[in-house]
Design goal:
CATH superfamily of the largest domain: Gcn5-related N-acetyltransferase (GNAT)
CATH topology of the largest domain: Aminopeptidase
Strand content: 25-35%
Distance between the termini: 61 Å
CATH architecture of the largest domain: 3-Layer(aba) Sandwich
Helix content: 25-40%
Structural class: alpha+beta
Radius of gyration: 23 Å
Bound molecules: methionine sulfoxide
């Protein structure tokens, strides 16, 4: 990582001589609360954290040009819950007396420019507590938009709702060939190994492969109801009646249903309260509807035309696996 210069700041690597400055930041309860870390209890603890910062290639010290004090930090890590491999999660903190003067915004603008110059990163996310208005402002001014809410998100040992903000590159990376996923599934799964084996790996593949999804799985249609099949994500509703919900609509219409905002879909069944958008694709084998492929995302409008084409291709391959299931059932 390079040193970055702004009007009032220098973003540089951490140094051993920053210990006192870092300790001041790490022991301030308000900074800890806002940035979501457990406050340091001793100089020794701060020293351990400083060594982590010095050794890490993703943590900048935000220093004041005028006196070289380390007044805050910005840190980028590979995105965790969104599993966005091309993306980073940003975290930051700034000393109390420097807040509301545009310092953090200035620092973040420089850091974002640097991160987006790296062609391999397509998006940056940030998680903010809903009452942290100053931080929300910093993000909005830096081109982030509110993408969703994550309930029960753990920060500093306590769980609570956080707001998820995302900024995507203005020139997003070119999307891959939409038929790629179907091809990958075909080569990953050998139907001679059994339909259930194949289906389990197929949903695991989709869950692992796609960014920004929190649930992927199959429901089987049996005697007018949907029964939970192989899935990845939080435990879900095991039996769904065909009278309500997105999966049921897909069964009734015998077609793909894309829901950009599940909160606007009357009758939506919330298995994971983090879900914000959803796509359901019927699994049709020779005209018979055997079940559905259901995928949820924690951000709104996750599934566009590209994702629909890609997942319909994947569903077709998965339907092929279901030949064995249909035979067993008969
Ligand atoms: N949301 C679905 C229920 C299944 S879960 O999302 C896994 C529905 O409304 O049918």
């Amino acid at each position: 990582m390079e040193e970055l210069y702004t009007r009032r700041l220098i973003l540089r690597r951490w140094r051993a001589s920053d210990l006192e400055d870092l300790h001041e930041l790490l022991t301030d309860p308000q900074t800890a609360e806002g940035a979501g870390f457990i406050a340091s209890r001793s100089m020794e603890e701060s020293l351990v954290r400083l060594s982590g910062m010095i050794n890490s290639s993703d943590a900048w010290a935000v220093t004041l040009k005028e006196d070289d004090t380390a007044a805050g930090w910005i840190r980028f890590r590979p995105d965790d819950i969104l599993k966005n491999r091309r993306g980073f999660q940003v975290g930051y903190a700034i000393r109390e007396d420097l807040r509301r003067q545009g310092y953090m915004q200035e620092a973040l603008a420089a850091a974002m420019g640097y991160i987006f110059e790296d062609a391999s990163s397509a998006s940056v996310s940030a998680r903010v507590k809903p009452d942290n208005a100053a931080s929300v402002k910093v993000l909005m001014k830096n081109g982030f938009s509110l993408a969703g809410r994550l309930p029960g998100y753990e920060t500093a040992g306590s769980a609570g709702e956080v707001l998820l903000f995302i900024r995507t590159r203005d020139d997003p990376l070119p999307k891959e060939d939409a038929s790629m996923m179907a091809k990958q599934l075909s080569s990953l799964c050998d139907p001679s190994e059994g339909w259930l084996t194949c289906l389990c790996n197929a949903v695991a593949f989709i869950y692992d492969e796609m960014d920004m999804i929190n649930w992927a799985g199959v429901y089987f249609l049996k005697e007018g109801k949907l029964y939970l099949g192989p899935f990845n994500g939080k435990p879900a509703c095991s039996v769904i009646d065909l009278s309500r919900g997105v999966c049921a609509k897909s069964v009734r219409d015998r077609s793909t249903v894309v829901v950009p905002d599940v909160h606007q879909f009357e009758g939506h069944i919330a298995c994971d309260s983090a879900s914000a958008s959803e796509i359901v694709i019927p699994l049709m084998l020779e005209g018979e509807l055997l079940g559905v492929l259901d995928i949820d995302s924690p951000i709104r409008e996750r599934f566009g035309e590209y994702e629909k084409t890609m997942l319909e291709g994947a569903a077709k391959v998965m339907t092929g696996f279901l030949k064995g299931y249909r035979e067993e059932r008969q």
